[in-house]
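Something for you to look into today, if you have time. Could you write out one complete protein record for me, on any chain you like? The space below this message is yours for that.
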Amino acid sequence: MSIFKRVKAAALLAVLICAAAAAGCGGTVDSATTTAARAKTRPHPTRTVAKAGLRIGVVGALHVRVPGAVSDPGTLRQSEGNALVVVSAESKDLDAVVAAADAHPTSHYAIVGASSRTKRRPNVAGLVLDDGQAALLGGVVAGLVAGDQGGQDARVAWVGPEERRLAGAFARGTHTIVPGATVLRAWSRDNPASCKEAALGAVDRGAVVVMAHGGTCAQAALAGAHEQNRVGLQLSDFEFPDVAADAVVRDAVAGVYHGSEDVVFGAASGAIGIRRLDPRISPDLALQARTAAQELASGRRPSAASG
């Protein structure tokens, strides 16, 4: 081969190499081809873009733990602008929540532990805990204590303002365990002094357990029972408001918001059960009470076999 031919061949080879590499020679190649070539020589890192969680305003003694949501505890005013605000009914009155909802129509508000039926709004929902089931379970616990301390002749009492529906559920729960027990209905005015007086009167009449609805009345009634070394119960001992809050937050994370309605949570949802018990109740009776709560959650009526 002549020198000319060798030079020509070398030049042609250089052009081919330059076109294949497309580096420093001014050549161009398909970008997908170069990307694939690089991928063969070294791994391409995968970048995961972190998604910001849905911010949820939380007002009152609630603890929200839902994947995809970021809890933002604070006041009703501090929660302005959040897509969803869950509010403990114990911390705010309904009028204040409705006013906030009217001022911020693009936000949704869920009142945990109260109905919204008197002030319907498209962006307000009530998360109602089944207080009848809570009263029934309280009666079961009272029946267990009554059977342990006084047998078929034992006495228990519902104390506070006249609430026949709840007192009736409490009585049914008690009679499920101890059919012969006497259930006293110690009605009183809705103030601490009257409620405590009614509780002390029930204890004087032989009640070994006193149960009340809630609030300052229940606190006073239980204080009176404890002064006489008697067991005291209230509805909140059997309610899990965080379960209801978590449920509505999970819906919000999935893009579903509730409004103009009440959503009821009972034992089957886990919102009704044994939350806490008077320390005067023995560990054995507490275990039986938790078994009864499991029966209620499974859809069965707690039976005397639980005690």
In short: The radius of gyration is 33 Å. Confidence is low (pLDDT under 50) at residues 1-51.
